[in-house]
Amino acid sequence: MKLYNSLTRTKDEFETHEPGKVKMYTCGPTVYHFAHIGNLRSYIMEDVLEKFLRYDGYEVKRVMNITDVGHLSSDGDTGEDKMLKGAKREQKTVMQIAEFYTNAFFDDCKKLNIKRPDVVEPATNCIPEFIELVSKLLDTGYAYEAGGNIYFDTSKLQQYYVFHNFDEEDLAVGVREGVEADDNKRNKTDFVLWFTKSKFDDQELKWESPWGIGYPGWHIECSGISIKHLGDTLDLHCGGIDNAFPHHTNEIAQSEAYLGHPWCKHWFHVLHLNTSSGKMSKSKGEFLTVSLLEEKGYDPLSYRLFCLQSHYRKSLVFSFENLDNAQQTYNKLIARVAALSEEGTVDEAAFAELKAKFKEALDNDLNTSLAITALYDVLKADTNDATKRALIGSFDEVLGLSLLEKAAALNAQQDVPVEGAEEIEAMIAARTEAKKAKNWAEADRIRDELKAMGIILEDTPQGVKWKKA
Length: 469
Ligand code: AMP
Ligand code: ZN
Prior knowledge:
Shape: elongated
Radius of gyration: 26 Å
Number of helices: 16
Strand order of the largest sheet: 7-4-3-12-13
Bound molecules: adenosine monophosphate, zinc ion
Low-confidence stretches: 171-179
Strand content: 15-25%
Distance between the termini: 44 Å
């Protein structure tokens, strides 16, 4: 598989330390609020990547952290802890907030068919591991104490900016949101490993450490959790593009300084979901959640399809009009799958040929939109329905659109005797006649009448199907 690597800035052949095995790490959510659908775009695309690697025969071990302490309002170690902010907002404790939003996150993931990682580890579970890491960094001179906090000394590295050359403006990330810069830092790019004396709001959760009572910085959490569960090397590390700097850059700095050798081979970054007014983000106040989409009548999986229709390395603009289109496409897709019969036996040659096209699309830097095209090619293919159904089931192991299940549900719905079914069928037949006679006004009138009765019509290649709204 060729996969773009942010570290080399090229599409590399995906290679792992141990043949056939992938050690995969994903930056998990900061659980101070609901995930917005932008966050979930990243998790959907990472889920497709994980599922495709498994589909390709790899054994994958995937680890995700839950950030429940230490992620300050600015990624550059300034501002209030996001968790504390959430707790104040809802007048609850930090742990109550963490539990509530961790569950909400996995509920959303379930609705979007995002598989739960093999290991999910809250940062607050790993304080001894973080202390161990920081202690060694101090012993080896990569870290220093100043003003009560422990900082990583970026000047000790040959190369700090590993992803690309950032300029001064990018560094402003450390001092944005009107928060004063941290004078304890020897270098502008240094970052906090352990806080004991944050100048900012007091922390609810604190632990004993050799440097006084305090709490870990956000970046050290991902290095610590990854090393705890996946060992000294990683094959694949994922996150949204905003994580590349400073978060992932700092993870690499401290992990490699600690380990004394290169750490992760491959860095996978998903570009942002934007609205017409820019990046979707929680700090802006208003953001869209899966529950909100559901309240508006959308199937969460139509949002998944919307994400799959574009490449993960392009930013994606969200609008309800775009989502309407995805929902329509999704419904039509389900109707087409539902119309396939279950008879016949799988034609192995046709199966292999069509599957090869699907794999080819994803082998080329996870081109999900071409993979969707390969799915349509199956529906159009000159082969029997049994082969088509088998291929759709196979592709859906990666796409995660529940196509066969939804199609079965649609068919079951139509098989249930509905009161007045005969009358409905007669009206549909009359509408078909009206359409044949090009009497569009009459056809529309009948559709509207049926709609008023709570019956929804769907034009499928096999004729008109109907369901109760
Ligand atoms: P957070 O919960 O803020 O730590 O973010 C969780 C994940 O969502 C991280 O991988 C972020 O990089 C990613 N992310 C944040 N905003 C967006 C966005 N608008 N579109 C896509 N991914 C995002
Ligand atoms: Zn992380």
